[in-house]
Amino acid sequence: MSPITDPECRGCGTSLAATDVFCDLGAQPLANALLSADQLNQPEIHYPLRPLVCRNCLLVQLPDVPKPEGIFTDSYPFFSGQSATWLGHCKRFADQAIKRFGLGPTSRVLDIGSNDGSMLRPFRGKGIPCLGVEPSAGVAQHALMEGLPTMIDWWGTETADRLAHTEGNPTGRSWKADLVICTNVLAHVPDLKDFLDGVRAILAPGGVAMFEVPYVGNLIREVQFDQIYAEHHCYFSLKSLDVALERSGLYAFDVEHESIHGGSLRVYARDHHNWSAGASVPWMRELLEEGDTRRLHDLATYADFAVEPPKAKRRALNQLGRYYSGKRVVGYGASAKAAVTLNYFGLGPETIEFVADTTPVKWGKYLPGSHIPIKPPNALEQAKPDVVVLLAWNWAAEAVPKIQAACPDAEIVVLGSECPNLAQDIFRSPITIADLAASDRRQ
Ligand code: JHZ
Asked: Which of 24, 271, 295, 334 could form a disulfide with 374 if both were Cys (CB 3.0 to 4.6 A apart)?
């Protein structure tokens, strides 16, 4: 797996300046490249986590990324359906989209990056024909086993073309979509232009595309440095996403802020040919100019971020040393974000004995770099830890009751991102977990 060097902005094509550094988390192995015991003594390829920001469209991005074939392998271990919060999010979106866009039994829904089929299920449940496209065969098999139609493939103009034409098309019919869904997929795409050109090409006349992306506004404000890993090539604002969409002839007509995954933007777009004059453009433009988004139009906002991850690291290590040394500490949630945090903080099994996780394929494996073992949740009951580090902080409302049930006497803390919506600074004093759960539930 050799890195591809792309000196041009993925969103607008402008040359990137090597000096426009967003932050530097050092070099880390792929966050989802979990290791088996016999791989622990083998070398791990490390990729620089040093995103740059484009001076033109302000898209934050990693310039050198591994080939996607090396990331989304057959054993890719992330199953989105592990979170009940996510499943609820998918159901709410499906109900809303069916109503808003008048979808019915003759409509077609395409979910790109469909993972284990969590987003397809609620559409199928309402009798709406749907299709997933997912390159990771292992997760896609779960959808297929449930009878959720899924193509194991990469998305781009070539796949769109195959789908739109009968030849070589697994459905055996020409296929165009009334709704294209792309949740948490754009960040993973090395060739954004080709991907978005493919989305535009597959839209039926009047069709709508929905893009949900982790929001760089939340990343900056809450120092969510753990969202940065080689799998995520881009970190979007509304402006940078809008520029990338326009470049492919897609026009955004609505935007919402969603609390999911630490804060996401949900943007709706149409092919420019189907643009009805006067729709929501002025409103979108206003939103692009106002409040929080205005800050994101200033290059200095991005340059200033670089000092924040080292501060978070100092606070977290101080917190571990002062409050928790000599205690039995374990982790919860062997997420990609967990891998980034543990590697950036330089923590291993000497500090965090193991990480408990609900995903069966992760059990018995080790986190990349830190080599901390991953165990099933019942390991918490057996270990009776003093402290549980909540690494899946984005699922606090759902995860905390499970941890409390397994080890009621343990203190639950967060070492990862800063969440200013909490009542107190979680890095300086032990977290009031009720606050975290409440803030998560409110969103
Ligand atoms: P979670 C993944 O990131 C990878 P990750 C990917 N790159 C991406 O973009 C985002 O998702 C969207 C477990 N868990 O969802 C399941 C529990 O153990 O934050 C997961 O292993 N108990 C595609 O990996 C992990 O925690 C629970 O109660 O950072 C959470 O990973 C719950 C709810 C989850 O995504």
From this structure: 334
